[in-house]
Write a structure and sequence with these properties.
This protein is α+β, with helices and mostly antiparallel strands. It folds into three domains: 1-172, Reverse transcriptase/Diguanylate cyclase domain (Alpha-Beta Plaits, 2-Layer Sandwich), CATH 3.30.70; 179-229, 5' to 3' exonuclease, C-terminal subdomain (DNA polymerase, domain 1, Orthogonal Bundle); 245-344, DNA polymerase, Y-family, little finger domain (Dna Ligase, domain 1, 2-Layer Sandwich), CATH 3.30.1490.100. The chain has helices at 14-22, 51-54, 64-70, 81-95, 120-138, 150-160, 173-178, 190-198, 212-219, 222-229, 260-280, 313-330, and strands at 6-11, 31-34, 46-49, 75-77, 102-106, 109-113, 142-147, 165-167, 245-257, 285-294, 299-310, 335-344. The strands form three sheets. The protein has a five-stranded mixed β-sheet. A four-stranded antiparallel β-sheet has the order 9-12-10-11, with helices on one face. Strands 3-2-4 form a three-stranded mixed β-sheet. Helix 4 (81-95) runs antiparallel to helix 5, helix 9 (212-219) crosses helix 10 and helix 11 runs antiparallel to helix 12 (313-330). The chain is globular and about 60 Å long. It starts with 5 loop residues before the first strand and ends with a strand. 31% of the residues are buried. The protein binds thymidine-5'-triphosphate and magnesium ion (MG).
């Protein structure tokens, strides 16, 4: 029988590691990349932080004001997306040399199907070689996980972070999963985890007890996926066709606002910037998503998938404005952030 061998690679503290590389004087200090903290009054969020800053409790998506409170002496840097994108492209060029079946998942993450090696020993050698090549060419560390499917490979990678390597042989997959906390399973967020904890379920092993029907009742359709994942089942294939690229922009207002002039002028700017990005990359878009965050972090999103891809500016503008207007009509609270994202193809 053919052995499936899947590799997952994820760069360590990607944005912050690139900043450290560019500024060696930051090494050994807490580094936070994200919005301007403005002495604690800043209103955006953390994109990422190096592992030293993480010791203070700082992590991706944390409000930047909170990060400042936790570690005011950290080095706070703005997001230099252009640079990170260039680095990402070079890394992906290296990765895809290692297998014809590769899939980029985000700027710093990719899967490779290396089943053609037919041996976990050879897979280990390939992984070490890949990690070394990235480090030699880019001076950046990465972590690699290997397993019999995407799920196991990704979870192994998470477990081995940072600058690590973990290989889970097929016969060890069940043991590996069993003792991990339920929140290590992709798809289980803190809210879902809380529901299970109240039922006395804390580990993935314990999450094998509820029947499929019970999980479907509790979680809806995703219950079926969870039922399979806790048993190590994941049939998703590694394929570049599956890459869903997206581009987007968001803006956090200086002060929460209900002023329609300010809100819609900002949306206009966001639409233009996103559209420019689409055109520069010669893409069209198919799905449009609008995000609106109100006071208190209450966040609403709405998406529309078009019948076929387009690059019509008017369609983008009309849809974005209509959705945002609907959010404002339905919710009287002041607005903290608005954003627009499109899936490109
Ligand atoms: P991740 O791979 O999730 O995080 P990371 O590379 O910073 O850290 P590690 O993998 O070692 O745990 O995300 C890759 C980059 O994507 C990250 O450097 C910054 C960006 N990012 C955001 O801007 N906001 C987010 O909420 C997350 C999760 C990531
Ligand atoms: Mg990463």
């Amino acid at each position: 029988m053919k052995k499936n061998i899947i590799l997952h690679l994820d760069m360590d503290y990607f944005f912050a590691q690139i900043e450290e590389r560019e500024n060696p004087q930051f090494k050994g200090k807490p580094v936070v990349v994200g919005a301007d903290p403005k002495e604690g009054r800043g209103r955006g969020v953390v994109s990422t932080a190096n592992y030293i800053a993480r010791r203070y409790g700082i992590h991706s998506a944390l409000p930047i004001s909170k990060a400042f409170e936790l570690c005011p002496e950290a080095i706070f840097l703005p997001v230099n997306m252009e640079l990170y994108q260039q680095v990402s492209e070079r890394i992906m060029e290296i990765i895809k040399k290692y297998s014809k079946a590769w899939e980029q998942v985000s700027l710093d993450e990719a899967y490779l199907d290396i089943s053609f090696l037919a041996s976990y020993k050879k897979a280990e050698k390939l992984a070490q070689k890949l990690k070394k090549e990235i480090f030699r060419k880019e001076k950046l560390t990465s972590t690699i996980g290997i397993g019999l499917n995407k799920l196991i490979a990704k979870m192994a990678c998470e477990k081995a972070k940072p600058n690590g390597f973990l290989i889970i042989r097929p016969s060890k997959s069940q043991n590996f999963l069993e003792l991990l906390d339920i929140q290590n399973l992709p798809g289980i967020g803190s809210k879902t985890a809380e529901k299970f904890r109240q039922m006395g379920i804390n580990t993935i092993g314990e999450l094998r007890k509820p029947s499929k029907t019970k999980l479907l009742d509790m979680l809806g359709k995703v219950g079926e996926t969870i039922y399979e994942r806790v048993r190590g089942i994941d049939e998703r294939i590694v394929s570049p066709e599956e890459i869903v690229k997206s581009t987007g922009k968001e803006h956090t207002f200086q002060k929460d606002t209900r002023n329609p002039k300010i809100i819609f002028a900002t949306l206009e700017k966001i639409i233009k910037s996103v559209y420019q990005d689409i055109m520069e990359n010669n893409f069209s878009f198919k799905t449009i998503t609008i995000v609106c965050r109100f006071t208190g972090f209450e966040t609403h999103t709405k998406s529309k998938t078009l019948k076929k891809p387009t690059n019509d500016f008017e369609v983008l503008k009309r849809t974005a404005k209509m959705f945002l207007l609907r959010f404002l009509v339905e919710n009287p609270k002041p607005v903290r952030l608005i954003g627009l994202r499109v899936k490109i193809c």
